[in-house]
Amino acid sequence: MILHRTVHLLTACDRSNRTFIERTSIKHNKCVCHMHSMHIYINDLPQTTSRTSHTKHVDIQLNSGMRTISGSIMSTPVPWLPILSSIAPAAIRRMSASVTVMDKIWQHPNLPVFDDVIAHPEVQLPSRSPIWSTVFHTDWSVDKAWKEDWFKTEVSNQFLITDPAICQPDFDLEPKDWTLLNHFRTGHGLCAATLHDCGIRDDPFCACGSKQTMLHIINECPLTKFPGGLHALHAAENDSVTWLRKLSIR
Ligand SMILES: [Zn+2]
User: Fold this and answer.
1) Which residue(s) pair with 205 in the sheet?
2) pLDDT band at 250, cuts 50/70/90?
3) pLDDT higher for 175 or 134?
4) Taking burial as the number of CB atoms within 10 A of a residue's CB, which of 7, 29, 34, 233 is the most buried?
5) How far is the CA of 77 from the centre of ligand 1 (A)?
6) Ligand 1 center to residue 120 CA distance, Å?
């Protein structure tokens, strides 16, 4: 029931964020506050609830909200969404909540819950994942876990991000510039190749004659390429906003 309500709450939050951005041009970093509130709410759920497989319904809504904040299109790989939104992945935040709870229980053996968790009875249903079944390392931290997670999965343009836990450059840009910048960072944007794949354009070609991908626009195209390439654009160097605003794609 709690998860069901959470999914509804997140859907409403996501819709309101999208409406704010579309109608009032409110900046995405304000919407991050809404999303953070939702994450905190989820982390406060009882551990027995937040560790069930049903949390995937919550994660779908959280990802949808992060797509709104970062302006990402549907094909953008999920690991990019927390980085661009500057919100740690939900699974890691849940793990962090579990670590905190287990720490408290270990430090207070007089608590009635101590025997239930530390000297727990044998698990009768193997499909369950009780909090005591997770092995916690003493040096575990959100930032460290996030970094490990980021580098163990192959993601487009992964080399741009050396530390996923820091706020990425130009986080306070206008929404339309921020969105386009993120399309270049992830390599997933509304270029001719993507529009052609979706059946919206007849051909995938750029005005220069080559296939137009996001990487082509920034690194190779003689008509548009950015001095310093993707690295410089990501670091918001060499007047990146002026360059973004000159482009015909959005
Ligand atoms: Zn071109």
Assistant:
1) 211
2) confident
3) 175
4) 233
5) 25
6) 64
DSSP state of 158: G
The predicted model gives 135-161 an average pLDDT of 89
Task: Using the mean position of ligand 1's atoms as its centre, give its distance from the Cα of residue 238 in Å.
Answer: 20
- C-alpha distances out from residue 79 to 61, 82, 155, Å: 15, 6, 7
Is residue 24's pLDDT more than 50?
no
Residues by chain with Cβ below 5 Å of ion ligand 1: 206, 208, 221
Sign of CA dihedral 91, 92, 97, 100: positive
The answer to whether 164 and 150 have CB atoms below 8 angstroms apart is yes
Q: Point out which residues pair with 211 in neighbouring strands.
A: 205
Residue 138 Cα to ligand 1 midpoint, Å, equals 51
Find the 227 Cα to ligand 1 centroid distance in Å. Answer: 15
Is pLDDT above 60 for 4? no
Burial degree of 223 (CB within 10 A; 0-12, 13-18, 19+): exposed
Cα 218 to ligand 1 centre (Å): 9
At residue 1 the predicted structure's pLDDT band, cuts being 50, 70 and 90, is very low
pTM of structure = 0.78
Under 8 Å CB-to-CB from 164, ≥6 apart: which residues? 82, 83, 146, 147, 149, 150
Quote the ligand 1 centre to 190 CA distance (angstroms).
14
